[in-house]
Amino acid sequence: MDVPDRSGRSKPRRGTNWLHRLIANPAFQAWAAQNPFTRSISRREGADLFNLVQGFTHSQTLLAVVELRLLHRLYDAPAIPSDLARLCDLKEPSMVVLLQATAALRLVKRQKDGRYALARKGAALLGVPGLEEMIRHNRLLYRDLEDPVAFLRGETIPEVAAFWPYVFGEGAAINPEASQEFSRLMADSQSLVAQEILSTISLKGIKHLLDVAGGSGVFLSLALRQYPGLTTDLFDLPTVIDTARTRLDAHPGRVQFHSGDFRNDPLPTGADAISLIRVLFDHQDDTVRALLRKVHEALPPNGRLIIAEPMSGGTRPDQATDVYFAFYTKAMGTGRTRSADEIMTLCRAVGFRGLRNPATHRSYVTSVVTGFK
Question: Strand pairing partners for 304?
Answer without folding.
Answer: 273, 372
